[in-house]
Amino acid sequence: MKYNTTPIKNVGDESFVGKFNGVEFRFEPGEERFLPTFVSEHLAKQLEVKLQKKDPKKNIIELLNSILGEEINTKTEASKMTFKDEVDQHEKDFKEFQKKKTEEEDIKRKKAEEILNEDNPE
Fold first, then answer.
1. 31 φ/ψ angles, rounded to the nearest 5 degrees
2. Which of 8, 10, 51, 84 could tie 27 with a disulfide, CB 3.0–4.6 Å?
3. 11 lies in the same domain as 63
């Protein structure tokens, strides 16, 4: 894995939706997820702020400690690819990209043809 992992738990009694880099993460009450540490820490702060607004008497440190678990060392060294291997992988990935793009264009063309046929029945 590319990152270390830290569990994050919604210790509140309501659903929580946090955002990181424009991506929403939804947690039901009591739900625990295992995310990259930097994401968990960011979302934990958002959850802490939400819970603190509901109960300002809560101790922030204790609250954060109840939200975040211990970091798990899951980061591994990236494989050391030769430049040639990287280029080969790039070409392979690009072929997949092209294939997907062609498939998407085919679907759009077929939908357009269907619409035209609906508007102009024979």
1. -70, 135
2. 10
3. yes
Two tokens, residue 107: 């679907």
In a 10 Å sphere around its CB, with 0-12 CB exposed, 13-18 middle and 19+ buried, how is residue 42 labelled? middle
Q: In the numeric block, which tokens belong to residue 48? A: 């802490």
In a domain, 94, yes or no: yes
Domain span at residue 95 reads 79-122
Q: Which residues contact 64 (CB under 8 A, 6 or more apart)?
A: 44, 45, 48
Closest CA to 65 of 6, 3, 4: 6
* pLDDT tens digits along 68-105: 999 999 888 766 778 778 778 888 888 999 999 999 99
Number of domains making up the chain: 2
CA distances from 51 to 29, 33, 48, 68 (A): 12, 18, 5, 14
Task: Determine the length of the chain.
Answer: 122
Same domain as 45, residue 14: yes
Instruction: Please calculate the CA angle 63-65-69 and round it to the nearest 5 degrees.
Output: 135
